[in-house]
Amino acid sequence: MAEIKNEKTDLLKIETKVEGPWIVAWKRFKKNKVSLAGGILFVLIFLSVWIIPFVIDFQLQGDLGYTGVERFGNAMSINIGEHGFDLTNSRQKPSFIDSESEHFLGTDDQGRDILFRVFFGGRMSMNIGFLVAFMTMFLGSTIGILAGYHGGIVDDLLMRFTEIVASLPFLPIMMTLSFIMRWVPQEQTMFVVVIVIGIISWTGLARLVRGQVLSLRELEFMQATEILGLSTTSRLFRHLLPNVLTYIIVSTTLGIGGAILLEAGLSFLGLGVTPPAPSWGNMVQAARTGVILQSFPHMWVPPGLLIILTVVSVNLLGEGLRDALDPKEIR
Amino acid sequence: MLKYLIKRFIGLIPILLIISFIIFFMIELMPGDPLSTLLGDTMPNDPLERARLREEMGLNRPLVTRYGDWLGSLVRGDLGKSSIYGYEDVSSVMTRTIRASFILNITSFLLALLIAIPIGVKSAVKKYSLFDNVFSVVVFLGVSMPSFFFALILIYIFGLNIDFLPIGRMTSILRPESVSRMTYTLDVMRHMILPVTVMTFLNLAPLARYTRNSMLEVLKQDYIRTAKSKGLKDKVVIYRHGFRNALLPLITILTMWIPTLFGGAIILETVFNWPGVGRALLRGINGQDRGLVMACLVFFALLRVSANLLADFLYGVVDPRVRY
Question: Are B52 and B103 members of one domain?
């Protein structure tokens, strides 16, 4: 008897409880196990590139009596490439994977601990991925919203501009731009890569957002904001933006993976992050030397595998978000 | 139709002009002295002499004038000399490298199409089956894998450890004119195996995905249900009624894919030392060979713009519903 009563109140509760769109989306996302796994994996990789270098660093501190950070400056600095430099190892002829060594993945041709560099390089690749994604998000959604909302000549000009940027050949232009920006000090090449990739890859999002805004603009709620006499900023950002937010989130998430791949490609060509600062791309670049390619795969396989793992996980996350956030997609 | 095309062409002119100006301006910003790239070994040491030459060659004139001159010579087909290719004409370097790239790209594109379309159709028809799921994983790997890493792994396995396939360059025959055409072609084909495998796999993934999506869209349509209820065989329904219509959006996407193909080949040409236009661009950039870099950038830009135009055009040709 008591149980039945409980059920009844539960039913009543469900009827009265209003679930916000975000909760609905989260519930739908949770159901998709593969995407959830991708999301968790991505978070794990993200955390480990920030935490693992410190763990290794403390180990090295025990061996060498100092921390890398103390000796070689802050995280953005170029010297961090030398960070994890094992003095005892570099004096001998380069020794590689060795079961007795404290280097889990061995050392590279300059005696640097590979595990440390893989995770430290991951920090670089992740930073670039996120910064590019944010830059794309900012440029793409601003231009898209402005063009779609204002229409007329503003729309014409902005869309012409978008069309021109979209007709540029991506990779060749990125390569040339990156070379032009060689004057940037070595320790800041990360920002060069971010700008070079970000400046050209926002066009897809801008078009998407513009299309959405164009159709939203005609709906009643936007007319209501006009009648209420709200300011343009409030109408754009409080009322229009939340409605296109899902597209922006999905596109930004997928953009992280794309940016990590592009960074790897540019660095591999020697036009991305400049060594000795490590990134996944320029660590794989070592394999362009025949000897390393043939005899020391432990130098270039781990960063390559991590690129794949990261991009797969972030793409799974992005696709899961797309399915979860799109209210039209009924499963 | 014709009217629409003419309109598109005219609309393209300002875009091409702006793109060419962006390219010109970027080259202008490139580090290095343009005079030394133009003259090479004959560069005089005397600064006065240099200044005189600079004036003579018009390097001191305003940017816009030089842009106009450059555009003029570009239209005439005079691309200057390439300093890193031993002062060969840029146009002849370009013809050679574009041909090499083209062989590689077209082979892998056709192969990818031949494999991707049946896979895409099958996995759309049997949505969420084992086949579809396995293929989805492969596609996911294909779009998430850096091309060069895949190439390096293949080189490591087949080229170095099994020593089975050549890992670089277009041919190992030093004097192509000394052997018969047949031997030369066979040797080039042997060198193509690894790069074509990598490129085919990487192109396969997005192409198969597009096919699947486009096919899924079509299979939802009413006319498919009609065809099925008429009692037609599955094969007929899928290929005669379904696939033909799925092809429409696919053609556009395939055309747009071509510039991506060439662009993506830059990295693979570098890995495999393939003497294509992408590797020429990278060498040009690193060697500060302005003439060559400009020519390559113009080539890639033209490829992109013309692919867009072609996609528009084809869309109208294959789909009678589209009116301009």
Answer: no
Give A172 to chain B, closest Cα distance, Å.
7
Would the pTM count as exceeding 0.90? no
Alpha carbon distance A52, A137 (integer Å): 29
Residue B284 located in a structural domain: no
Residue in B24, B141, B149 to test binding to A, most A beta-carbons within 10 Å: B149
B205 in a domain, yes or no?
A: yes
State the total domains in chain A: 1
A265 touching B, CB under 8 A?
A: yes
Q: What is the ipTM of this complex?
A: 0.87
A250-304 pLDDT per residue, tens = 899 999 999 999 999 999 998 988 887 888 998 898 888 777 787 788 888 889 9
For residue A95, being part of any structural domain is answered with no
- The CA distance from A55 to A45, in Å, is 15
Residue B316: domain span: 96-276+300-323
| Chain A from 222 to 261: CB within 8 A of any B CB | 257, 261
The token pair that represents B252 in the structure block = 């556009």
Of B146, B149, B297, the CB nearest to A176: B297
Are B82 and B120 members of one domain? Answer: no
From the list A302, A301, A304, the residue with the least C-alpha distance to A281 is: A304
Q: What is the pLDDT of residues A160-198, one digit of tens each?
A: 899 899 888 888 999 999 998 888 887 788 899 999 999
Question: Which structural domain, as residue segments, surrounds residue A264?
Answer: 23-55+105-324
**Phi-psi region for residue A50, left (φ > 0), alpha (ψ -120 to 50) or beta?**
alpha
Whether residues B160 and A261 touch (CB distance < 8 A) is answered with no
Q: Which residue of A has its CA nearest to B20?
A: A168
